[in-house]
Design goal:
Length: 149
């Protein structure tokens, strides 16, 4: 009978497995570890995944957007003591590579820190004015309803 490769193995198939008298038997982990130096590209997969991860560039706002944002911040400053529930979208730079992502945070406004130029939320989140993209909430609807037409 021939094996898959066309050779006969009848003469060796039933021989006992060789056991060295000089070297103790290795565990599976030890046998695998002896080949680890050949993993020359250790960390390569992680580097490729990091390169594939997409980040967004920071987009400058037009003057109209900046003006609207400034009006909303002034409104929030006037109603800061009410601790209104707001939603702020801002640009968060990536810690590992250039670019970042636009993130939205929702919560109660704790303070508008004019000196630190940031919004402070009750949960401790701080949003710098320079990265603030938009701010929204019911507090602005209430303001629009009370303003004269």
């Amino acid at each position: 009978m021939k094996g898959e490769s066309g050779y006969r193995y009848d003469d060796i198939i039933d021989l006992p497995h060789h056991v060295s008298a000089r070297h103790p038997r290795m565990s599976g982990e030890e046998r695998a570890a002896q080949f680890s130096p050949f993993a020359a590209l250790t960390g390569h997969g992680e580097a490729v995944r990091e390169t594939e991860r997409i980040t967004d560039p920071f987009a400058e706002q037009c003057e109209d957007q900046k003006e609207l944002l400034n009006r909303k911040l002034l409104c929030l400053k006037e109603r800061e003591r009410e601790a209104p529930e707001i939603e702020a979208a801002y640009y968060k730079p990536d810690e590992r590579k250039s670019g970042g992502a636009y993130v939205t945070v929702r919560g109660r406004l704790k303070k508008i820190d004019i000196q630190g130029e940031r919004l402070l939320f009750a949960d401790g989140t701080a949003v710098p004015f320079e990265r603030l993209w938009s701010v929204d909430g019911d507090v602005f609807l209430q303001t629009e309803e009370t303003e004269p037409a």
